[in-house]
Write a structure and sequence with these properties.
By secondary structure, the chain is mainly α. The chain contains 20 helices and no strands. It has helices at about 5-30, 55-60, 65, 75-80, 120-125, 135-140, 145, 160-175, 190-200, 215-220, 230-240, 245-255, 260, 270-285, 300-310, 325-335, 375-380, 385-395, 395-400, 415-425.
């Protein structure tokens, strides 16, 4: 091979290299694309909550209903970009890694027909009876895997309450008929605290308040003056009206109840009336009374007091209702309540209030929780969570208290209800096992 042929071969090789490198540089300039700021299908693994079941304490301090009053849907649209990798938001949008979110507010949980939900979320939905209302959306978005263990959703959650409120405000707009915003709950806290103070045995001057559940019943009916205790107080007054026929007898009838009233611990208000009668009768009628006139009347007035005092003794005789349920079985049944309620040491308010000491506790009185106006009004007529009242509540909350925020449909098995109540009764107000 001569030098001319060798030069041609080397020239061809160099030309080929030049064309390849030059074409690559030209293509890079024509079709260059910047790397996306956020990977399109990034799946973030959920972090374990530091506070366990106590993590939603901030949610209880600032209810989502209050935050939604000033939430910014445009800021929520920016937050929704984090959801766009797995969800669509437009009408008629297809399911992706997660179900579409069009018209999601107040939609039954786990109800998109052509999407396969995890068993955990189906259980959380109670068969589709629980809906994605504002409280449930906030609760789930805050920590999906922490609040619904076993869910397939890998999103770590939004811990900032304002970010959640903005996102939910935007989700609300994804509908032809957006759901109405909830009412601001700020005015509910004061009645709840007042109810707690009114039923706190330590703050009450009535000795019977320490009796817990049995002391609550007269609280509703004292004003009616128709129960046994008020009746016992009224008996001496009736005797004073019926017995005297002369001024002497009138004075004796007013004086006679003084000794029995001293031993009557339930007649504070009527004792004041009797004292007034004692102080008034001697000054007005004493000058006209012969000394011997009171003698025949004296035995009659004391005789009426023991007869009327018998019903009064029946009030402290009431015993707390025995709980027939099985606490161990109730602990298992309580799992369906754990999405919204906590119990035990360190329990705090979640979507619903913590339930420590609930049996015998005043209705709508958990500190730091904002109750619905419906339950606050209900508490005025039913001041105590007795086992009987809890049974009615667990059977059908919305039927017992129309307008309550509780969306749970109720427990239909009476035995299961008894077991749940027995389990609730096994914790005292501090969350320790009750003796």
């Amino acid at each position: 091979m001569d030098s001319f042929e060798a030069n041609k071969i080397f020239g061809a090789v160099l030309g080929t290299i030049f064309v390849l490198f030059g074409g690559s540089i030209l293509a890079e300039g024509l079709f260059h694309a910047e790397a996306p700021e956020t990977p399109g299908f990034e799946i973030v693994v959920a972090e374990a909550p530091e506070g366990g079941e106590g993590a939603p304490a901030e949610e209880a301090a600032v209810p989502i209903a209050a935050l939604l009053q000033t939430a910014d849907a445009e800021a929520g649209a920016a937050q929704f970009r984090k959801c766009g990798a797995c969800h669509t938001g437009e009408q008629g949008g297809a399911n992706k890694v997660g179900p579409h979110l069009w018209d999601v507010v107040n939609r039954p949980i786990a109800s998109v027909s052509d999407f396969s939900y995890s068993a955990a979320l189906q259980e959380f939905s109670e068969g589709g009876s629980v809906v994605w209302d504002y409280d449930h959306l906030s609760y789930f978005i805050e920590d999906p895997k922490g609040h619904v263990p076993g869910t397939a959703m890998g999103f770590a959650g939004l811990k900032d309450p304002e970010d959640r409120a903005n996102l939910i405000a935007y989700l609300r707009t994804l509908s032809e008929n957006p759901a109405p915003l909830p009412e601001a709950p700020a005015a509910e806290a004061a009645p709840a605290e007042a109810a707690a103070e009114a039923t706190d045995p330590a703050a009450s001057s009535d000795p019977s308040a320490a009796a817990g559940e049995s002391a609550q019943a007269p609280a509703v009916t004292d004003t009616d003056a128709a129960q046994p205790a008020p009746g016992a107080e009224a008996a001496p007054v009736q005797a004073a009206d019926a017995q005297p026929q002369t001024p002497a007898e009138a004075q004796q009838a007013a004086d006679a109840p003084a000794a029995p009233t001293a031993g009557d611990t339930s007649a504070a208000a009527e004792g004041t009336v009797a004292a007034g009668a004692e102080s008034a009768a001697p000054t007005a009628a004493a000058p006209a009374v012969p000394p011997a006139a009171p003698a025949p009347v004296a035995p009659a007035a004391p005789a009426a007091v023991p007869e009327a005092a018998a019903p009064a003794a029946a009030v402290p005789a009431a015993e707390p209702v025995a709980l027939a349920g099985d606490p161990a079985a109730g602990k298992s049944a309580f799992r369906k309540c754990q999405a919204c309620h906590a119990i035990g040491e360190g329990a705090v308010n979640k979507i619903g209030p913590e339930l420590n000491g609930i049996v015998g506790e005043a209705v709508a009185s958990v500190e730091g929780y904002s109750f619905s106006p419906a339950l606050t009004a209900f508490a005025a007529e039913h001041p105590t969570w007795t086992p009987e009242l809890l049974t009615q509540w667990l059977e059908n909350p919305r039927e017992l208290v129309p307008g309550t925020k509780m969306v749970f449909p109720g427990v239909k098995d009476p035995e299961e209800i008894a077991n749940i109540i027995a389990y609730l009764a096994s914790f005292d107000e501090a969350g320790a096992p009750a003796n």
